[in-house]
Amino acid sequence: MPRLDDYVAGASAYVRRAVVLDQGPKKAAQIRLSAALAEALKAELQERLPGMSHAHAGERDVGGALRVARADLSEMHPLDGLRLGVELKPIHLAVGRNLWNRFGDIRTFAVNLHLKFPFAVVGGVLTVPSYEWVTRGGRAERKSTIGLVERAVDRLSRAGGRRNEGDAPHLLEAAAVVVFDPDGDRLLDDTPPRGSGLRWDEFVGAMAAAYDARFGDL
Q1: Is residue 22 pLDDT above 80, yes or no?
Q2: Contact at 8 Å (CB) between 74 and 59?
Q3: Is 102 within 8 Å of 89 (Cβ atoms)?
Q4: pLDDT attached to residue 70
Q5: Nearest to 84 by CA among 106, 56, 105, 112
Q6: 143-159 per-position pLDDT tens digit
């Protein structure tokens, strides 16, 4: 079973080699990395929530209030319908071009599912390398993404924390920003800052707590 460290190692290798990969291998790698991240999150949630036995890692269509949503990790129950829905948005390349679109996707995912399933525990995950490749003068160069990430952290910190089914549907029960250094195959120590609620371990804990509060005794 892959863990977050396995995902970070694979994503780091992908970012380092992205400038020499053809489009086919790039697409295949992106699919495998997203699948590994979904499995890693499923494993960590199930360790904290043994009763979450029917979680599905992998894309699954879920009928939302506005349109069909594609959840990367989900759990359906005959009594409640959707209990858990998570959207994973790995951004390995072109961070500056894609970051805000992916942020918007996560917010739309939340309102779409909560309007139909107000009790559902909904989360979103952005993963971002600490640098991206940009082309200048025909050459690929590295450009730091940290400034962009800090702005995303500020916005996402206001998008999470939905405590009960009566809170605003556009809020998420929890969100995470996974920022990794591709050269060190590691998570950054201070981005997002600890206590922000956006680090991976904080995200998993908040998702597990919300799920247990709503469905733990059912």
Answers
A1: no
A2: no
A3: yes
A4: 94
A5: 56
A6: 999 999 999 898 888 88
DSSP character string of 20-63: G--HHHHHHHHHHHHHHHHHHHHHHHHHH-TT----EEEEEEEE
Let me know if 164 is exposed, middle or buried by CB neighbors in 10 A (0-12, 13-18, 19+): exposed
Q: How confident is the model at residue 218 (pLDDT cuts 50, 70, 90)?
A: low
Burial class (CB in 10 A: 0-12, 13-18, 19+), 105: middle
Q: Where are the domains of the chain?
A: 4-215
Q: State the Rg of the chain over Cα.
A: 17
Residues in the chain: 218
Within 13 Å of residue 134, how many CA atoms lie on the same side as its CB? 9
Residue 1 DSSP one-character state:
-
Report the amino acid identity of residue 115: L
**pTM, 2 dp:** 0.93
